[in-house]
């Protein structure tokens, strides 16, 4: 899901010129004024679309190991760091569980900012909506989350205030994850992630998940990522498919 970033680059030019005046051997150092930084709008709206070979969420396939298409929109108020957004994706797991929807619709909002240079925070709430899902325990889920970033690294905790994705008596479940997104060269980024999902009163459903991958940005065109993903739980295998098995996931996305 769902993760959104904004970057601002400041540029400055420094020029040294040596000139002789009236035959004198003395020289002047001339320093050009810094170029004006590009103004950042107070209000920004962006849109995103993606096609992935397998929609994995917390290591588990949401599409029975098959492709998914998704899209969303985000609003950010830069002076305050407040943001809101929505995102939709095709899914299959509800029908595997006896329900009747093939869409996940997420709505979220929060606030981002900096504690200090290089130390960021992101807090908010996220509602996962599965229209008319029809499961015996409603799959719709709300989580509160908080994240702290340290340069390319982050740690995040998400806490459900409802039952978790249709699991009975699972309110107050938690998910903690940490990751590293290191810029390499030529718009490549190395991605590393590990997480742990704990399911309240359902310890047999608790598990770890892992991701190792690389992302390549093609400016003005698209972003392509390839990652190896798995989770260490085997109890979720509808229709004979292990939704947590190790797999390579290819995703092509664009934000505009």
Describe the secondary structure blueprint for this structure.
Elements: E1 43-52, E2 56-57, E3 60-61, E4 68-77, E5 82-90, H1 93-96, E6 103-116, E7 119-129, E8 141-150, E9 153-160, E10 174-183, E11 188-198, E12 207-218, E13 222-231, E14 247-255
Antiparallel strand pairs: 1-4, 1-14, 2-3, 4-5, 5-6, 6-7, 7-8, 8-9, 9-10, 10-11, 11-12, 12-13, 13-14
Give an overview of the whole structure.
The chain is mostly beta strands. The protein has a single domain (43-255), classed as Beta Barrel (Porin), CATH 2.40.160. It is 2% helix and 50% strand. It has a twelve-stranded antiparallel barrel with strand order 1-4-5-6-7-8-9-10-11-12-13-14. The protein starts with 42 loop residues before the first strand and ends with a strand. Residues 1-32 have low confidence and may be disordered.
Short description:
The protein has 256 residues and is an all-beta fold.
Number of strands: 14
* Strand order in space, largest sheet: 1-4-5-6-7-8-9-10-11-12-13-14
Which fold name is given in CATH as the topology? Porin
Compute the CA-based radius of gyration. Answer: 23 Å
- DSSP strand (E) fraction? over 45%
Order of helices and strands: EEEEEHEEEEEEEEE
What is the CATH C level class, in words?
Mainly Beta
Overall mean confidence score, pLDDT: 87
Largest sheet: 12 strands, antiparallel, barrel
**What number of structural domains do the residues give?**
1
Query: Helix tally?
Result: 1
- The CATH superfamily bears the name monomeric porin ompg
The percent range for helix content is under 10%
Q: Based on Cα principal axes, name the global outline.
A: globular
